[in-house]
Design goal:
Elements (H helix, E strand, L loop, with lengths): L10 H6 L6 H22 L2 H15 L5 H22 L3 H17 L10 H10 E2 L2 E2 L7
Antiparallel strand pairs: 1-2
């Protein structure tokens, strides 16, 4: 398992792409990067083992100053890219991986727990609402 396929070194780049205009493009880029990881996961059928290993590697990779910021960025990345990519694959093992990763993360970081959402929830949310209020974007999609 190559940890860099699931949580790449350029997480800040992906986070900068989490906006209405760029999310689809960055998500496709992430799908390509993570495809080998998910194929290996699905072949193994070990969602729990893979999720625990990824969470442990994340924890071990965060070093230096600004650890809190790194954990925040990683949590946001898992919520907006990793989990939606797993759910979008339509495979039960990948979906179970998303749930197991969320649970492993919440166990170690209860104050940073997150809920699962699929790609369409994020992508369509940009087009339809801001903080729950319907917005008409006109032709600026």
């Amino acid at each position: 398992m190559d940890f860099r396929q699931i949580v790449p070194a350029d997480v800040p780049d992906y986070l900068s792409g989490f906006n209405r205009r760029k999310y689809g493009q960055f998500f496709k880029r992430y799908e390509e990067l993570s495809r080998p990881f998910f194929e290996e996961l699905e072949a193994s059928g070990d969602a729990e083992g893979f999720a625990k290993e990824v969470e442990e590697q994340i924890h071990g990779s965060i070093k230096g100053l600004f650890k809190g910021r790194q954990y925040c960025d990683t949590q946001f990345f898992l919520m907006t890219y990793t989990a939606p990519a797993a759910l979008k694959r339509g495979n039960e093992t990948s979906a179970a991986f998303a749930r197991e990763l969320r649970d492993a993360w919440a166990k170690r970081h209860p104050d940073m727990a997150f809920q699962l959402a699929d790609y369409d929830t994020f992508a369509n949310g940009y087009n339809n609402t801001i903080f729950g209020f319907k917005v008409d974007w006109g032709n600026n999609k």
